[in-house]
Amino acid sequence: MSMKLDMAFILALAAVSVGTGNTGVVVGVVTEAATGSPIPQANVVIVGSELGSATDESGRYLIRGVAAGRHVVAASAVGYETLTRTATVPAFGRAELNFRLAVKPVEMAPVEVRPPERVLADGPVPTEVVTQTAIVEKCAANVQEALRWQPGVSVKTNCPCSNAGEVQIQGMAGKYTQVLVDGAPTITDAGSCYGLTNLPAENVERLEVVKGPGGLRLSSDAIAGAVNIVTKSADRTGGSVGVTAGSYGTLNLGATMSLKTDSTGVTATLSKSRTDPVDVDRDGNSDYVKSDRTALALKALRRLGAGLTLVAAANVGVEERHGGALERIAGRSNDGLYQNPNILQWGPTATLEWQPAAATSFTLRGAYSDYRQRVFAAEQWFTAFEDVVLVEAAGRQRLGAGQELQATLAHRYERLVENMRVGVRRVRVFGATVQDDIRFGGFTITPHVRVEHHSDYGPFLTPGIAGQYRPAAPVTLRGSFGLGSRTPPTFSKLTHFCPGQGMYDFIQNPELRPERSTGGNLGVEYHPGDFVVAASLFRTNLRDMIEERLVEYDTLSRLRKYQHLNVGAIANQGFELNCGLRPIGGFSFRGGYAFTDARNRESGEALAYRSRHSANWQVAFENAPAALKVSLTGELVGSMPTQRREDEQLVPGPMSPTYTLWNVRAAKEFGSVLMLSAGIDNVFGYVQSGWLVEDVPLWGPSRGRAVNFGARFTF
Questions:
Q1: Is the Cβ–Cβ distance between 547 and 513 less than 8 Å?
Q2: 459 within domain boundaries
Q3: A Pfam family this protein belongs to (predicted)?
Q4: Are residues 100 and 201 located together in one domain of the fold?
Q5: Which of 175, 408, 425, 460 fits as disulfide partner to 433, beta carbons 3.0 to 4.6 Å?
Q6: Are residues 78 and 150 in the same domain?
Q7: Average of per-residue pLDDT across 167-179
């Protein structure tokens, strides 16, 4: 189909006549089921829309501008079960809907980052959420794509021959971001070697993003922050089937089926995604690889009675990528650069929750992850197999009306096997964490302390504290401070990204020291109603930074020997500004700006591939009577230092230009059964091209304008 027809389709959707419709309000009160006490700062939203409100100190809420008719309304709060009810809203009238929420312990405090809902979570630790609705709107096929366009979060691709990538938070390298699945830290350096593209978006309920030292309460490795992947759970009996197809041979298929009864919930998801290679600079080698991924996930919940709940889950994913010479990728030649990563990841988890009383709960969790990576390059196979076993026991006790104590004990075992470099490495980590939530007046203070014993590096103590204060109803002040510690990795990412340029060996360093960090974050949020703005300052000091360095090169055998070295210290600081508003009926805006200054503390040089200035924004219009939504999204990526290869070393390269990417999308719902969508990513087709042949790694997009069409059937 021609480009003109593609644009005509989107413009036709955008031109549907605007109807205001008759509206009413929804009011009510949210209380605790066991005590009847009001729950302040609970979130009450109209499901399937952007309408919502937060409760005041007496637990009351008011949602204006609700279209007349029948709606599903959901209420949620930190530490409580989410409850949904149905209300019929009369035109120019009001519907009263009260909620009684049952107590439930949770790991994090999610809230969607979409106006007019709150930009930050209702707790002292700043938490942003990418919801399932936002993921669908992005047409994201995997977790890495779902994290695009988030303030302070940068998704980077590091290698055009393998699409290896990482997620950076607040200018810190991806290795300082801890990725968890349902709160379990089972994804390691090896498991994220080729990025998060092997984790399908079809199985994601939401993504919870914690920036700065607040993530250290989840893991001492979360120096930059943490991303928690919350997988889908059954909330009804039914399912959905979706397909997206578009440019560059992109095809994403996904299906979800759920069964829900009073005591049991079962969810199964199946997804498949593929794309063709792209050669931007026309040198005959891929700048974006050919890939094919299939994934299956199962999750079951069973209430056993007497406060017992059992959750069991399992997943398996297979992905194959082909990068390098296009003729070889197509099977027409056996010559030229070629990489063929094959990834297999699977694992079960089981969680037993026991709540003997409203104020007391215990959790026992076990998880196993098996990651297998085989890469064909330099005419041979490079393999890395890793097993991760996690056993965790946690307890929570509410001590009166204003205090809650939590404690966790955990044991983690990792076994890494590589065929040519590291050999076999085994690591055991024992840890204990204690956290105390104290509330008085408008204050909330959450100190925590984590003690870990590493089998190779001994004990570590990483304390931290977070606080929140509400001097007035629409104003919230937040602050956090924490110490972090990251033990040297057992896995060498660099020697797996580009093994096609020769032979590699990895030399163990007995003098290596763990990386240590000190981080702080200060923020303020103002949320009077249909407008919300939040600003934050952050700084992280990292010492004993670890990097992979080339220490020896044999020109005859082309054997490169690498080693992990402590190379100094960095300082990373900056600020973020996020806002959201709904100026007039149907229209909404959200945007964010981040300034990041990341430097070597000894030399003062700026770190490579960190933009000092970045921003993103979205303008959306939703016509509820017509079930139509149109959005325009933009992303600005500021100039950044680059690197290039010279005499087997990476040396400073030219500064990249500042560029802006635009994306447009339209979606039309037909009742509650069918949704059709169309979109254009990278509307003006901006790509990095010429510098690739100069051996400058990727700093910009390697695919131009992409048109896609999608359909989702819900039953």
A1: no
A2: yes
A3: TonB_dep_Rec_b-barrel
A4: no
A5: 408
A6: no
A7: 86
